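Board notes, transcribed. Complex of a protein with 2-acetamido-2-deoxy-beta-D-glucopyranose.
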Amino acid sequence: MANIKKNRLKDEVAFRRFLPLVSITLLGVFLLMFLLRINSNFATPFSDDFSQVLTNRSHAKQMLSLPKQTEFSLQLEKRNQMPPRNLDLYPSLDEDHITIVLYVHNRPQYLKVAVDSLSRVVGINGTLLIVSHDGYFEEMNKIVEGIRFCQVKQIFAPYSPHVYPNSFPGVSPTDCKEKDDATKKHCKGTPDQYGNHRSPKIVSLKHHWWWMMNTVWDGLKETKDHSGHILFIEEDHYIYPNAYRNLQILTELKPQKCPHCYAANLAPCDVNARGEGWDSLIAERMGNVGYTFNRTVWRKIHKKTTEFCFFDDYNWDITMWATVYPSFGNPVFTLRGPNKCSTLWKMWFAPGPGGGKKHASITVW
Ligand SMILES: *[C@@H]1O[C@H](CO)[C@@H](O)[C@H](O)[C@H]1NC(C)=O
Ligand SMILES: *[C@@H]1O[C@H](CO)[C@@H](O)[C@H](O)[C@H]1NC(C)=O
Ligand SMILES: *[C@@H]1O[C@H](CO)[C@@H](O)[C@H](O)[C@H]1NC(C)=O
């Protein structure tokens, strides 16, 4: 366990070293193009009307002057318009359902377990599960296509760098990498303040998160009028059977028990947290795991698009903590239930003997 944490810490340190890699994110570039095009007031380029503009896809594409889409990207976009699967088994959604959004990249070993855990969640058959994919991976796709326990809809980010193997927004052959000197290496790219060039795979985490948020709140006909909460989880989350019902209770209690809370959450086990074992609800700082909020909160976040996109960091959560939440004026709290370790755990596959995946054992921490 300690070892895992140490390794994890090492990974994180390595990961943080990449921090400077993304001075202007891809999305920032899109935004900039957009700003230059419409030549609008820089400080407040996005009104709430922007989401309405975005619902006219061809109009939005013209305005953003996005890179030319590949045939495959167009196919994925078309697929995003398909109705949810399993409508025959679950023709209607519960009145008070909380939509669940599971965002994934390419870790089938984790996703299998996450989906298996979801299949046992009480109440899941009354809601819609949206799986948001960063890139198209056959093995990931197969797992999601096998889901029979609720309505399920897959969406694929059409401008994921994983969908553009050898051109922007992916890596072009002429791109500079890491700390390349553009003149010496005859490559293209503008390094950030630390001399690092763009790394599409890394920036993609933040871009996908922002695309997914915009798409589920404002872009999909299944959810754009959803008046309740949306829960966001990831492929390495193990969800307990009581999670969904607990969350429904939490969101219901939130207005009375914690009117200043922005969200409810299924926090993972953290033995160092204060208040462990309290027989009461707990308000804590907004986290990045199992968070759930409503459209009012999304509108507040969306108003800070410029801040989000131009902040020099590729982590969506750090960007939120550094730019968006502080702009709300009050400390941003989230409400969680008393049994801290019983609704969501983060998974970690430890390599088995010889480091082989076959013998991997699963640890939750
Ligand atoms: C969407 O935008 C395109 C391009 O600007 C325009 O021609 C079309 O009329 C718009 N469609 C709707 C339904 O507003
Ligand atoms: C959903 O599952 C519950 C058991 O957890 C069952 O009682 C209920 O009939 C199911 N509803 C649908 C629509 O399948
Ligand atoms: C959404 O949540 C916020 C924060 O808890 C709350 O102030 C607001 O009234 C809620 N909006 C709706 C439509 O329920």
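The two ends are 8 Å apart (CA to CA). The chain has 13 helices and eleven strands.
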